[in-house]
């Protein structure tokens, strides 16, 4: 089914971003929220976004006006009844989402697709609250959704092939880069992004360096545009702590570091401190820990077939701006070196060495 009309439930950070991204590409959007001020705010954000696009020459004034005009807002759920696709973006709370799907199912068209933008909940668990689970899936946008091109298309256990195909087509048609993945903790990208940021905090816990130094080492080792602490200060340590805690069922390696826990629970930004400057002896242990903590979960998700190597690398590049993508980097380092980086972490946290280690060297070929 070709999607031309969508309904979005929840007009917060993600709902408004998804509305802007979709209407900019010709999709008619109806944005619903229980809080009127959120609807007004979302419309204001769209006006600012399209106004800037005109100022920067990316859109004509007519195109901007038309895009703005394609976003309707409402406080009445039945106004979403004609949508081809309904995207839920309410607070990250299982019961609230479950109730939302239970209210949506009776009003949704019988052939409509329903998606959740959940970051941390299992799509297959939420599917139990949808009337037609075969037409339900995860569409995990990355913030800011109006700019970040990545969308993880998460296939639940009941999601049909036709639903996946329509969702991929919708993402591509709205200028997004879809990453098809399995419904596992952290999906494809947070599965390694969270441990990488968590290991940065463990390096502080273990006295290996200051956050500013670790950020610089990460830029050198992984070619990231900004280091893990700088990035976490943008997404907020509290939010990242929540995402890291979500991965805890995967084993002790994923448990949150003390430094991250303190900053997250205090709702404080990380104090970056000062960087003592490059020093190979001081920097090497940090680089090795950051690389090992990125490679171990990537290899595990390859074992679990959450996503393929090319897609994982695409996610790292597109959503996280990794200049060196994990699978390509592992291939260039070779199996022996990757095992040297991964083994100490696997042993420290009692994790098995991933079978995919054997494929390092030809992951991307
Ligand atoms: N913020 C991010 O970086 C990010 C990234 C990816 C995914 N997500 C996920 O997207 C979802 C939304 O996150 P957010 O950051 O936009 O949250 P937010 O707090 O900015 O917005 C949530 C919105 O939901 C509305 N809402 C609450 N109950 C509602 C109901 N019953 N019906 C309709 N609207 C209701 C609120 O009024 C609010 O406007 C969450 O599941 C979150 O995990 C967030």
Plain-language structure description:
There is one protein chain. This protein has 365 residues and is of the alpha/beta class. The protein has 2 domains: 178 residues, Rossmann fold (3-Layer(aba) Sandwich), CATH 3.40.50.720; 170 residues, N-(1-d-carboxylethyl)-l-norvaline Dehydrogenase, domain 2, CATH 1.10.1040.50. It is 50% helix and 11% strand. It is built from 15 helices and 8 strands. The protein has an 8-stranded mixed sheet with strand order 3-2-1-4-5-6-7-8, with helices on both faces. Helix 1 crosses helix 2, helix 2 packs antiparallel against helix 3 and helix 10 packs across helix 11. The longest helix is centred in the last third of the chain and has 24 residues. The two termini are 34 Å apart. The relative contact order is 0.09. The model has no long low-confidence stretch (mean pLDDT 97). The structure holds nicotinamide-adenine-dinucleotide. Nicotinamide-adenine-dinucleotide binds next to helix 1 and helix 4.
Q: What's the topology here?
A:
Blueprint: E1 5-9, H1 13-24, E2 28-32, H2 36-55, H3 61-69, E3 71-74, E4 85-88, H4 94-107, E5 113-116, H5 123-126, E6 136-141, E7 150-155, H6 161-173, E8 177-182, H7 190-205, H8 211-222, H9 228-235, H10 237-246, H11 258-265, H12 280-303, H13 309-320, H14 326-333, H15 335-348
Parallel strand pairs: 1-2, 1-4, 2-3, 4-5, 5-6, 7-8
Antiparallel strand pairs: 6-7
Helix pairs in contact: 1-2, 2-3, 7-12, 8-12, 9-10, 10-11, 12-15
Nicotinamide-adenine-dinucleotide is lined by residues 9-15, 32-35, 38, 89-92, 96, 100, 117-119, 141, 143.
């Amino acid at each position: 089914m070709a999607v031309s009309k969508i309904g979005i439930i929840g007009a917060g950070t993600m709902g408004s971003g998804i509305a802007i991204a979709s209407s900019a590409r010709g999709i008619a959007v109806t944005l619903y929220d229980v809080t009127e001020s959120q609807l007004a705010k979302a419309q204001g954000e769209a006006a600012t976004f399209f106004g800037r696009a005109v100022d920067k020459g990316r859109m004509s004034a007519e195109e901007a006006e038309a895009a703005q005009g394609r976003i309707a807002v409402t406080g009445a759920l039945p106004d979403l009844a004609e949508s081809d696709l309904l995207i839920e973006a309410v607070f990250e709370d299982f019961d609230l989402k479950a109730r939302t799907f239970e209210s949506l199912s009776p009003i949704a068209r019988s052939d409509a697709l329903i998606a959740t933008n959940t970051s941390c909940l299992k799509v297959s668990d939420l599917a139990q609250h949808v009337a037609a689970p075969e037409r339900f899936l995860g569409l995990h946008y990355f913030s800011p959704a109006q700019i970040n091109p990545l969308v993880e298309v998460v296939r639940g256990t009941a999601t049909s092939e036709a639903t996946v195909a329509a969702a991929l087509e919708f993402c591509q048609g709205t200028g997004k880069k879809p990453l098809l993945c399995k419904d596992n903790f952290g999906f494809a990208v947070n599965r390694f992004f969270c441990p990488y940021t968590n290991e940065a905090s463990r390096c502080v816990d273990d006295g290996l360096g200051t956050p500013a130094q670790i950020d610089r080492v990460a830029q050198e080792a992984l070619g990231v545009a900004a280091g893990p602490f700088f990035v976490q200060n943008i997404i907020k340590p509290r939010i990242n702590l929540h995402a890291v805690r979500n991965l805890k069922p995967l084993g002790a390696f994923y448990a949150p570091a003390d430094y991250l826990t303190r900053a997250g629970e205090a709702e404080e930004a990380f104090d970056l401190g000062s960087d003592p400057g490059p020093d190979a002896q001081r920097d090497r242990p940090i680089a090795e820990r950051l690389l090992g903590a990125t490679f171990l979960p990537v290899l595990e998700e390859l074992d679990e077939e959450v996503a393929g190597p090319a897609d994982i690398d695409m996610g790292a590049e597109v959503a996280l701006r990794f200049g060196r993508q994990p699978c390509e980097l592992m291939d260039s380092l070779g199996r022996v070196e990757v095992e040297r980086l991964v083994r100490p972490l696997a042993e420290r946290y009692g994790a098995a060495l991933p079978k995919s280690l054997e494929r390092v060297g030809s992951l991307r070929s």
